[in-house]
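so my prof wants the structure for this chain in the tokens format not the other one, which i didnt know existed until like an hour ago. anyway here's the sequence
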Amino acid sequence: MWTRSSLSNIMLVKIKHGRKMRITIPLALGAFQEVIESLEDLVWLYEKVFPGWNKNIKKLLQQSIASSIPIENFSLVLPFQLLKEVFYELRKHGRWQLAEIDIEDIKVKVEIF
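here's what i got, hopefully its the right format
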């Protein structure tokens, strides 16, 4: 039995330049989510194999712009979890229009289906 998901699966980027050029680029959101989940798994594995790298990242971050922000438990898995949540939020609302840009004879429209 097929299970119907209410999550959107495709993002269409439509570009139109005057009357002559029209381009439609379909992007599979499910594939992006799978790539993010795979990268998250690889980062998690890297953290387990090389546990000392976290100290080097903390030192670099404290020397840079983020020196005023206290960083205690930094993990690269957290940004990937955030990206997964963002993609889920984009997909859960069904069909909607993300952006429509119209500058002179150039039109760009981004829709999620």
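also thought this was worth mentioning. Residues 25 and 72 are 42 Å apart (CA to CA).
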